């Protein structure tokens, strides 16, 4: 999985070039080069993050499609302000899914609704639960199972 720290409009072309080289090398070996959706796009280490003019997942989607890579939609790290924005992100990136999706809770949306939405698109991949502290894992796990 590629970490896309520093992904911005001014780094997009170089990201596509680098990612395409990785994807082209990996594909014949059965390896999928992917990236997960992340907060607001992130700045270069030590630098402030750029103020996004649109959701960061939109830029990531363009890079993935141009490079032939894959997405790992991170329910919880998708930088969505509400349930509808999360569903928009999931739907937009679904065609490029690597077959893995992170699940993380957020006060901004309901995990169960997100899972139902994803399953409604036909998703049959894995869900990787990312929860801290440990006792919360059971809550998220049970929510996912109840909504499949």
Short description:
The chain is α/β, with parallel strands linked by helices and 148 residues long. The chain has helices spanning 12-26, 56-67, 83-93, 111-120, 135-147; strands at 34-36, 70-72, 74-75, 100-103, 126-129.
Task: Give the SSE string.
Answer: HEHEEHEHEH
Quickly give the structural class. Answer: alpha/beta
Number of strands: 5
Cα(first) to Cα(last) distance is 26 Å
| Strand order in the sheet with the most strands | 3-4-5
Number of helices: 5
Radius of gyration: 15 Å
What about the largest sheet? 3 strands, parallel
**DSSP helix fraction:** 40-55%
Name the poorly predicted regions: 40-47
Look at the structure and give the mean pLDDT.
81
What oligomeric arrangement do these chains adopt?
Answer: single chain
Observed structural traits:
single chain, 148 residues, alpha/beta, three-stranded parallel β-sheet, 5 helices, 41% helix
Describe, in plain words, how this protein is organized in 3D:
The structure is a single chain. This protein is of the alpha/beta class. It is 41% helix and 11% strand. The chain is built from 5 helices and 5 strands, in the order H-E-H-E-E-H-E-H-E-H. The chain has helices at residues 12-26, 56-67, 83-93, 111-120, 135-147; strands at 34-36, 70-72, 74-75, 100-103, 126-129. A 3-stranded parallel β-sheet has the order 3-4-5. The chain has a two-stranded parallel sheet with strand order 1-2. Strand 4, helix 4 and strand 5 (126-129) form a beta-alpha-beta unit. Helix 1 crosses helix 2, helix 3 (83-93) packs parallel to helix 4 and helix 4 (111-120) runs parallel beside helix 5. The longest helix is centred in the N-terminal third of the chain and has 15 residues, at 12-26. The protein is globular, with a radius of gyration of 15 Å. Mean pLDDT is 81; it is low at 40-47.
């Amino acid at each position: 999985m590629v970490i896309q720290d520093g992904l911005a409009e001014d780094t997009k072309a170089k990201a596509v070039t680098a990612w395409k080289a990785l994807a082209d090398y990996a594909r014949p070996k059965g390896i999928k080069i992917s990236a997960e959706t992340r907060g607001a796009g992130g700045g270069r280490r030590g630098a402030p993050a750029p103020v996004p003019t649109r959701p960061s997942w939109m830029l990531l989607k363009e890079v993935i499609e141009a490079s032939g890579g894959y997405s790992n939609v991170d329910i919880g790290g998708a930088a969505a302000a509400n349930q509808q924005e999360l569903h928009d992100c999931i739907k937009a990136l679904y065609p490029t899914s690597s077959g893995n999706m992170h699940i993380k809770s957020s006060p901004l949306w309901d995990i169960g609704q997100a899972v139902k939405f994803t399953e409604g698109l036909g998703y049959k991949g894995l869900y990787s639960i990312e929860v801290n502290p440990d006792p919360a894992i059971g809550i998220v796990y049970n929510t996912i199972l109840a909504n499949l």
